[in-house]
Write a structure and sequence with these properties.
- The structure is a homodimer.
- With about 300 residues, the first copy, chain A, is α/β, with parallel strands linked by helices.
- Helices cover about 50% and strands about 15% of the residues of chain A.
- In chain A, the strands form two sheets. The first copy, chain A, has a six-stranded parallel sheet with strand order 3-2-1-4-5-6, sandwiched between helices. A three-stranded mixed sheet of chain A has the order 7-8-9.
- The interface between A and B is large, with 69 and 69 residues.
């Protein structure tokens, strides 16, 4: 059945990810109200037909569904629960979808506050990076009540290709952290293997092909491995953001009573890159021989 | 062009891998002479039509191609260069193919000794485990001179499905170590991610599927991950053997001047399992919650 009218969507956070995501909603015909802390970032959206609000509360006042896509737990708390926050403008029966990657515990706290106002919340962090945001091909991991997920599904399908409902509120964030533990840990293994290959005189291009066909094969080897082979450190997913995600995962693991020594080491590897001035490079810089061996100041 | 006569092959080392590999050669019509330190292991081969020799030297005396498949660097040195070793029986123009996983430096030392007798050497370690050995579907990473590789290719193709010539003598071993660094490091990441998933209340089966479709996907997640999900710790590839390979990789990395902190941590994880009595379990035991958190004595 076709939707007769599309709900107005509020979108808060127009960074590298949020901007193309908001544009995709606009292009799909959703009336859009946007807010960004730095107002200049709203210009492209405004030019494309979005209304620009002057606070998260104003966004919420005009929208039935409010999406937040900001940098971290503190930023999500401020835009939703802070002064002039989303919570001050929301109408009963509306939905907040937080698509940032933040601490599951913070998600659950915010959801409880919103529930007191009869507002539902979904946590829907994404993977797929800026390319996925641009192409509407993100993978979206959703936590929340099934009925709310169903209601928001057309919106999520505008933003992503693979939408998975993984459990109650907070479980989207846990899934995302799980994804980062596995994905970044796999990349760390690929990076060390290819550094070993290069140092021992092997043909890195051939090694990626040979290993990729067997039990050492992975998305990271096939894709990020190629960037390491080409010594191309330009960002897709940045080291500094990976470090933020890994620290979140370690904090959550500690609260769960888990000792994740491999994840700690991978986090240390990212920290070392950041200290060397490589925080704005792509995560494939884990495979940079010079940086790892000399620890010298880094230039992209 | 069909081969008119097949060369006689000597096969030394009839363990879990060597026995099915030798049987595959016999079934393919190669005249076979075998030797194993523990003579009982030769019985199945003898029953299938292989000649049984009483020393590596005797094997070499009767064979044009000698394959070794033993446990470690020391064992390869003993069977090839030791008393009554292969080198004492070899004829000029024959070839030694070492398919064990050993230190590349030891491979190069043995190759140099054999070259003094006009005997060529290939290092051809494998991946694919006992299942691959049984099915003749191993991946074989070959170091050595191209002409020698070409001469031995039909034999290698009897044992494996994917044969890759990766460079000079020793490079097969470097490729195998690279494969273990990446494969076991990837598994460590999968193990910690799935432990996190389970502890946070996620559905591990669903997480394997969701993560597998994106940038966290790998052979280890799709295959070994299923064993972790099922809490099935029975061996395929054993923890004790993985530890041996990881230690080899770290020794070689040190000689190359590489600092592989992730690989060190993965090695520590395997060491901890061995200390807990889990050395004979499959490598997927890295994902066992109880063992990792309680460090309690382990029962399979």
């Amino acid at each position: 059945m076709a939707e007769l009218t599309k709900p107005t969507i509020g979108f808060i956070g127009l960074g590298a990810m949020g901007q193309p995501m908001a544009l995709n909603l606009l292009r799909a015909g959703y009336p859009l109200v946007v807010y960004n802390r730095t107002p200049e970032r709203s210009k492209a959206l405004s030019a494309a037909g979005a209304q620009v609000a002057n606070s998260p509360a104003t966004v919420a006042h005009q929208a039935e569904i409010v999406i937040t896509m900001v940098s971290d737990s503190a930023a999500v708390e401020i835009v939703i629960l802070g002064d002039n926050g989303v919570i001050e403008g929301l109408q009963t029966g509306s939905v907040v979808i937080d698509m940032s990657t933040i601490a599951p515990k913070v998600t659950q706290k915010i959801a409880a506050k919103l529930a007191e106002r009869d507002v539902a919340m979904l946590d829907a962090p994404v993977s797929g990076g800026v390319a996925g945001a641009n192409g509407g091909s993100l993978s979206i991991m959703v936590g929340g009540e099934a009925a709310v997920v169903a209601r928001c599904l057309p919106i999520l399908q505008t933003l992503g290709q693979k939408i998975t409902h993984v459990g109650a509120v907070g479980m989207g964030q846990n899934t995302k952290l799980c994804n980062q533990i596995v994905g970044m840990g796999t990349l760390a293994a690929v990076a060390e293997g290819l550094r070993f290959a290069r140092a021992s005189g092997l043909d890195v291009t051939q090694i990626i092909e040979v290993l990729g066909a067997g039990a050492a094969g992975s998305w990271q080897l096939a894709n990020t491995g190629k960037l390491i082979d080409a010594q191309d450190w330009r960002p897709g997913f940045r080291v500094a953001l990976a470090l933020k995600d890994m620290r979140l995962a370690l904090t959550e693991a500690e609260q769960l009573g888990l000792d994740l020594t491999g994840t700690e080491t991978t986090t240390d590897m990212f920290e070392r890159l950041v200290r060397s001035g490589a925080g704005e490079l792509g995560v494939q810089a884990l495979g940079a021989q010079e940086l790892n061996e000399k620890g010298s100041p880094w230039t992209a």
